[in-house]
Write a structure and sequence with these properties.
With 216 residues, this protein is of the alpha+beta class. It contains seven helices and seven strands. A five-stranded mixed sheet has the order 1-2-5-4-3, sandwiched between helices. Strands 6-7 form a two-stranded antiparallel ribbon. The relative contact order is 0.14.
């Protein structure tokens, strides 16, 4: 019985320590603690609901169009829309991009509309929002900025290495809805010449990790 009680106490202490660490991360990085838990749930346990991802995307699209804010879907979201007309199996977030000038001109109305629709801001730098237990990366893209879409050790997340490859824009489809996507050159730079070949969930997850360290 004493052994059982000790084990329970140890588990409680571990949980308490984890919570304190997460709280400190939330304070230091100025992130919503709920957002950190959501990211842990998704990244560690791969709890992903594709329908909720699509719902979040469609609500964002509605907000952007209503307020005449030009944006595009990027990274894996763009790849899925072009290659599969869908969210890629195993993709764990929605990625969108918006030019810095456009964002600065419209950010007040954007944040107001996001709040109305129930989106919460998880992080402001980089800009990440969440709803329905899933999150959206909003890449504010401009010269000499750091971009989430271009996570790369060599180029230190710099938008400069890729910004000229975003245009000309094209279109892709998710759930029969049309979205603006960057150029195929952009897709190739992020995913290589074999971007058009569908891969399994495990490889998709491993490739996300590799992209953080290896230049395509």
């Amino acid at each position: 019985m004493k052994l059982y009680q000790r084990l329970c106490n140890i588990i409680l202490y571990i949980i308490l320590i984890i919570f304190i660490v997460i709280l400190l991360i939330s304070i230091i990085q100025k992130k919503d603690i709920r957002f950190i838990f959501i990211r842990m749930k998704i990244k560690c346990f791969r709890i992903i609901n594709k329908n909720k991802l699509i719902k979040n995307l469609e609500e964002i699209d509605s907000i952007m169009k209503k307020n005449n804010i030009f944006y595009w879907i990027g990274e894996g979201t763009a790849l899925g829309s072009i290659r599969e007309n869908d969210i890629i199996d195993g993709d764990d977030d929605i990625d969108i991009g918006i030019y810095e000038k456009e964002f600065n001109n419209k950010k007040k109305v954007l944040f107001k509309e996001l709040k109305k629709k129930g989106f919460k801001i998880g992080s402001r730098k980089p800009l990440q929002i969440f709803k329905n237990g899933h999150y959206i990366d909003i890449d504010v893209t401009g010269k000499n900025r750091r971009c989430m879409a271009y996570t790369n050790y060599k180029f230190k997340n710099s938008c400069n290495h890729f910004i000229n490859d975003i245009e000309p824009f094209s279109h892709g489809y998710i759930n029969n809805k049309r979205y603006v996507v960057p150029s195929i050159k952009y897709i190739k730079k992020l995913y290589g010449d074999k971007w058009h070949i569908k891969i399994n969930k495990y490889d998709n997850f491993i490739n996300k990790i590799k992209r953080s360290f290896i230049n395509k």
